[in-house]
Amino acid sequence: MNLEKLQKHLLNNPDDLDAWDELYSISKNQWSKKFINSLPVEAFALEKSREFPHHDLDGKLDIPHLKNSIENLKKCDLSETDKEQVFNHLNEHLQELSNV
After folding, report:
1. For 65-79, b where at least 16 C-beta lie within 10 A, e where not — what string?
2. 53 and 10, same structural domain?
3. Is the domain of 34 the same as that of 48?
4. Which of 3, 74, 79, 86 is most buried, judging by how many CB atoms fall within 10 Å of its CB?
């Protein structure tokens, strides 16, 4: 659920504790497992295994999660091919940000 839908949902369902938890997670840049699972496959740098999420539900780049994905890449156990693919994808975003 994107932020706008979540806010509307909470207006009509103020007792929905799961929705409040999700709103809190989003507002603190800490995505819940439920939120991550709701992301489209394009939100991940490694689409086939849905790893390294760094785009929100609307497809916008999420800078804190981009940074987190870069840090996690250093610690992960992936094949060299997958590491290179993820690195190249994340690095493209860094290059875009440096050109802004």
Report:
1. bbebbbeebeeeebe
2. no
3. no
4. 86
pLDDT tens readout for residues 8-51: 888 888 888 888 777 766 666 678 888 899 999 999 999 999 99
- Amino acid letter at 61? L
User: Distances in Å between the alpha carbon of 24 and those of 1, 56, 65, 74, 75?
Assistant: 13, 15, 16, 28, 27
Reported as a single tens digit per residue, the pLDDT across 48-58 is: 999 999 999 88
Tokens of 88: 């190249």
Supply the pLDDT for residue 30.
75
Predicted pLDDT of residue 64: 84
Query: How many domains, in total, are found in the chain?
Result: 2
HSE toward the beta carbon, residue 46, CA cutoff 13 A: 20
Q: How far apart are the first and last CA of the chain?
A: 29
**What rounded mean pLDDT belongs to the chain?**
87
The dihedral formed by the CA atoms of 85, 87, 91 and 93, expressed in degrees to the nearest 10: 70
Report the pLDDT value the prediction gives residue 42, as an integer from 0 to 100. Answer: 96
